[in-house]
What we know:
Elements: H1 15-36, H2 52-70, H3 80-88, H4 94-104, H5 111-129, E1 137-139, E2 145-147, H6 148-170, H7 178-195, E3 211-218, E4 221-229, E5 240-244, E6 252-256, H8 258-265, H9 271-277, E7 280-283, H10 290-296
Amino acid sequence: MAVDVAEGKGVEVAPERWLEARLALRRAADRFTELLSTVPDPSVRATKSWTVAQTAAHMASLTWACTTIADPGARTSRDDRLNNQFDKTNVDNVRDFNDLLLRQYVEERDLGVLTERIQRDVAAVLAVTDGRVPTEAVDWLGGSRLPLAGLVAHLSNELHIHGWDIARAARAPWKIPPRDAALFFELFLVGVVRYGYGGLIDSTPRAARRRIAVQFRSKYTSPTTLVLDGTRDGTGNRGRVTAEPPARDDDVLLSFHPPSLNLMLFGRFSRARVALTGRVFVWGPRPWLLPAFLRTVHMPNN
């Protein structure tokens, strides 16, 4: 199915990049489930809210949910309650969506069983997306849309982030491959901006009454500028976010190490930490505008 011309304008995903995204998901699932097999105590806390077992169950619920997004024929397995939550979710209430999945769809907490479910559903996502166009538009939370390649990159990133949570709890090593991590920014984050983010950021503070352009650079991605326009549009609204080619007058230039940026965006690393290590470096004509940009363009922290 081709992308609607109103969605994903100018988006291209090279065949080799699509293959890379699919292989990255396979690797992430294998590493995540291997990590689960080494955890001595599933009841130890991995995040503020979840134990290792609950975090693994969250990933099992999320991999299952992604099968229903990737395969339109599987959507009948999502009932009206879940569909309603799916449609009204934004970055600040995504916890409600995750909690509903855990309460209603994945009651299992045995790590061995959860490992099998994660591997099964990741295999299902890869099977149902095999041979499809990576720029095909699919539904996402809050009435947003994203390319199929973005869905795959998102699932890889969830395995990376929650693998980091579990590894820290178990005091086990966990490295996120930079090239794989870069797919989240390139295919998911930029993808959902270009395809239409719906109500994902509806709950965020009102954008500053000006235009803020942040140029993102890394050796693993092409330079891309995300623009938060806080001026009023033709309908009187503020806070429109777009992806544009880099320009000389961009307000902020941000170079990033992909794993560190992702861990920062999802609240695992502080901005001070990544700045001090040089893994995220900010400069440009108006670098002080970055906090205002990130108050609107941000990710969930669970």
